[in-house]
Amino acid sequence: MGIVLVRIDNRLIHGQILEAWVPALQADCIVVANNQLAEIAFQKVLMESAVPRGIKVAIGSIEEMAQLLRSEELSACRVLLLFGNAQDALQAHRLGVSFDELNLGNLHGGKDKKRLSCTVALNDDDIEQLQALEDDGVKVVMQCVPSDRQRLWRRLIR
């Protein structure tokens, strides 16, 4: 299998993913691993219907998608893997989904969140989970769109 990008993006599948990342990476499969979305059938159908024909889509719980990614089913695909938050990424990694780099794309602001960029805000739990991923050997970077330069998230936390 070829995972070409692992990204945390609160919005999951949206225009930026479809219009910028998919063509830049020549991805032909989008996997969304998110427990909340997996339980909302209507929202899941809406996201699936937004994806152009010819691009495979798999949406499910963290555990279901971890199992799919560990199987041979997507072995010939260029997979763009999306998580909704740092907790999902950490859980998948600990369930055996192997990735060396994690892209922080869009993480909305909110109560007790510190803004690192115009699209990324983190709270203490997010920081702890990202630190755990780094401790496991994952490089965590921020890059909103492919034309942006990557920035290490750690340098922006003060």
Automatic annotation (TrEMBL):
Q: What is this protein called?
A: PTS EIIB type-4 domain-containing protein
Transmembrane regions? none
Principal cellular location given in the protein's record: cytoplasm
User: Which locations, inside or outside the cell, does it occupy?
Assistant: Cytoplasm
Residues forming the PTS EIIB type-4 domain are 1-158
Write down a Pfam family by its short name: PTSIIB_sorb
Indicate whether Mitochondrion appears among the record's keywords: no
Tell me yes or no: is Cell cycle among this UniProt entry's keywords: no
Q: Which domain of life is it from?
A: Bacteria
Q: Which PROSITE patterns match?
A: PTS_EIIB_TYPE_4
Q: Which GO terms describe its cellular component?
A: cytoplasm
Q: What is an example of a GO molecular function annotated in this UniProt entry?
A: protein-N(PI)-phosphohistidine-sugar phosphotransferase activity
The record's SUPFAM superfamilies line, in alphabetical order, gives: PTS IIb component
Known InterPro entries for this protein? PTS_IIB_sorbose-sp (IPR004720), PTS_IIB_sorbose-sp_sf (IPR036667)
